């Protein structure tokens, strides 16, 4: 299938298809679903100061429709940044019907609010405390959600296993995880504050969408320890048309129940994480590519050299052997602080019909397809 090079403001979105847009520059992750018929679903934020692709995309394409739900999967900095700007936007905020989060994160007393920490990839090392400004940002997002829930309780959406209400007759949405037991254990066992700060991934929301014969799994950052009990309840996780793979393709988030062969075509996308060990590692990608021929990455980790526009296809062996270069006149994108790597350049759009067939793919300038071999 041909891969189109595009821009967020000029995407071709057909009203009778499910359009799945995944954004991630390494500093944030968001999933935006243009629902067939009418309405949108937004999951997480994907923004940095002055670079809010979710706001930009919705301001261009929402028109007279509504965001049926805005969901914060878990309160880590690479998922909540950009959400406050959407909630408080001059007109977009009022178009959001329901705002979702695990209620326990939102409803903790102000005096108990935790100090957030950067998650650690290496479990032998402690998580690194986030700077005070980032901690304040996390609290501000949760506080704003709590204010809206209090003032407009009809907009409250407590994220836990069960139906995810979307006012769209064409799509059935469910929260597969977390369930009541996982939430209870997380918040009521001793050491809750530290667990929230360092292990919020353990409550990352997993969301399932069904449109016609197609199934779509949006997995946030849920890591391996919690996939086993989920797979006992959801015994067919491997059967899906598309999945946003968990936790940036890290080696500790490759559940066989999700990845094992299903005998049909599947579209896998992932976002990088540009802190710590720069996920995904080559080993992480190699593990994923044992199960599928290709993975669609919204951008390269900053530990890998990249020029823009990135090549539309790169083999794993190329990544191992040399820097990926296409247009030297644009210069390499090597550092997390480089402003020329904008989140709006780091996306994939996948358009599916009611049969679960992939009809079109569009990528941003920094996005690429990683292939086995």
Report a brief summary of the structure:
This protein is of the alpha/beta class and 373 residues long. It has helices at 53-61, 77-80, 83-87, 103-107, 132-151, 180-188, 192-199, 227-233, 256-259, 282-289, 316-321; strands at 3-5, 18-24, 29-34, 40-43, 67-71, 99-101, 117-118, 128-129, 156-158, 162-163, 171-177, 206-211, 214-218, 242-244, 267-270, 294-297, 313-315, 347-352, 358-363, 368-371.
Description:
- The strands form 3 sheets. A 9-stranded mixed beta sheet has the order 1-19-18-2-3-4-5-6-9. Strands 10-11-12-13-14-15-16-20-17 form a 9-stranded mixed beta sheet.
- The protein is of the alpha/beta class and 373 residues long.
- The model is unreliable at 109-134 and 325-339 (pLDDT under 50).
- The protein contains 11 helices and 20 strands.
- The protein has helices at residues 53-61, 77-80, 83-87, 103-107, 132-151, 180-188, 192-199, 227-233, 256-259, 282-289, 316-321, and strands at 3-5, 18-24, 29-34, 40-43, 67-71, 99-101, 117-118, 128-129, 156-158, 162-163, 171-177, 206-211, 214-218, 242-244, 267-270, 294-297, 313-315, 347-352, 358-363, 368-371.
- The protein is globular.
- The protein has a single domain, classed as Metallo-beta-lactamase, Chain A, CATH 3.60.15.
- Strand 18 and strand 19 form a beta hairpin.
- Helix content is 23%, strand content 23%.
Tags for this model:
373 residues; Metallo-beta-lactamase, Chain A; alpha/beta; 20 strands
The top level CATH class name: Alpha Beta
Number of helices: 11
Classify the secondary structure makeup into a structural class.
alpha/beta
Number of domains: 1
CATH fold field value: Metallo-beta-lactamase, Chain A
Summarize the biggest pleated sheet: 9 strands, mixed
Which second-level CATH architecture applies?
4-Layer Sandwich
Unreliable spans are: 109-134, 325-339
Secondary structure: number of strands:
20
Radius of gyration: 19 Å
What global shape is seen? globular
**Strand coverage percent:** 15-25%
Q: Could you tell me how far the N terminus lies from the C terminus, measured between alpha carbons in angstroms?
A: 19 Å
Mean pLDDT: 86
- Percent helix, as a range, is 10-25%
Strands across the major sheet, in which order?
A: 1-19-18-2-3-4-5-6-9
């Amino acid at each position: 299938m041909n891969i189109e090079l595009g821009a967020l403001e000029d995407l071709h979105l057909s009203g009778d298809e499910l359009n799945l847009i995944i954004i991630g520059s390494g500093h944030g992750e968001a999933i935006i679903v243009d629902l067939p018929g009418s309405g949108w679903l937004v999951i997480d934020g994907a923004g940095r100061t002055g670079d809010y692709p979710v706001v930009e995309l919705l301001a261009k394409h929402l028109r007279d429709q509504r965001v049926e739900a805005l969901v914060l999967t878990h309160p880590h900095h690479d998922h909540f940044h950009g959400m406050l700007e959407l909630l408080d936007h001059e007109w977009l905020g009022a178009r959001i019907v329901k705002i979702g989060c695990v209620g326990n994160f939102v409803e903790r007393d102000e005096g108990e609010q935790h100090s957030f920490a950067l998650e650690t990839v290496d479990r032998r090392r402690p998580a690194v405390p986030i700077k005070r400004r980032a901690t304040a940002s996390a609290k501000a997002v949760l506080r704003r959600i709590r204010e809206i829930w209090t003032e407009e309780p009809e907009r409250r959406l407590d994220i836990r296993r069960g139906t995810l209400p979307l006012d769209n007759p064409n799509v059935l949405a469910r929260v597969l995880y977390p369930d009541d037991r996982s939430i209870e254990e997380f918040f009521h066992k001793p050491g809750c504050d530290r667990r929230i700060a360092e292990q919020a991934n353990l409550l990352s929301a997993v969301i399932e969408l069904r449109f016609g014969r197609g199934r779509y799994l949006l997995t946030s950052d849920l890591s391996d320890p919690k996939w086993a009990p989920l797979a006992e309840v959801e015994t067919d996780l491997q059967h899906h048309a598309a999945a946003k793979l968990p936790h940036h393709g890290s080696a500790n988030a490759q559940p066989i129940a999700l990845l094992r062969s299903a005998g049909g075509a599947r579209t896998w996308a992932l976002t990088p994480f540009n802190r710590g060990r720069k996920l995904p590692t080559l080993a992480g990608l190699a593990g994923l590519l044992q199960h599928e021929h290709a993975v669609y990455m919204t951008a390269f980790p900053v530990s890998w050299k990249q020029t823009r526009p990135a090549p539309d296809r790169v083999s794993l062996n190329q990544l191992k052997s040399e820097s990926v270069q296409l247009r030297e006149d644009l210069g390499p994108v090597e550092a997390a602080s480089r402003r020329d790597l904008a989140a709006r350049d780091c996306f994939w759009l996948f358009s599916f019909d009611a049969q679960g067939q992939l009809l079109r793919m569009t990528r941003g300038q920094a996005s690429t397809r990683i292939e086995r071999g």
